[in-house]
Amino acid sequence: MRERTRRLATPSVVVTVGGSAMSAGDIRTVQTVFGPDTGHIGVLIEAGAQARLGKVGGTLVFTVGRLDDLPALFQGLAS
């Protein structure tokens, strides 16, 4: 993956989505592929978890327990 991304233009934003087996640290590791000029949002899907928005380093991390949680989380990001 690293070699392929080096040939592309730097993205403005990267969204990483993972299930309950992925940790916030795993999402943070993905950020290192892109560098400081790329915004990074991590989305962790954990069935039944309470929706929350947090930060790990410079990465925003949404925890989503239900699909209905997504609009409120993104609205919280915009405000």
Key attributes of the depicted protein:
79 residues; alpha/beta; four-stranded mixed sheet; 3 helices; 4 strands; 30% strand; globular
Largest sheet: 4 strands, mixed
Shape: globular
How many beta-strand elements? 4
The largest beta-sheet arranges its strands as: 1-2-4-3
Rg for CA atoms = 13 Å
Unreliable sequence segments: none
Q: What value does the average pLDDT take?
A: 82
Structural class assignment: alpha/beta
Number of helices: 3
SSE blueprint:
Elements: H1 2-6, E1 13-18, H2 24-34, E2 39-45, E3 52-56, E4 59-64, H3 70-78
Parallel strand pairs: 1-2, 2-4
Antiparallel strand pairs: 3-4
What does this structure look like?
This protein is an alpha/beta fold and 79 residues long. The protein is built from 3 helices and 4 strands; from the N terminus they run αβαβββα. A 4-stranded mixed beta sheet has the order 1-2-4-3, with helices on both faces. Strand 1, helix 2 and strand 2 form a beta-alpha-beta unit. The longest helix has 11 residues, at 24-34. The termini are far apart. The mean pLDDT is 82.
Brief account:
This protein is of the alpha/beta class and 79 residues long.
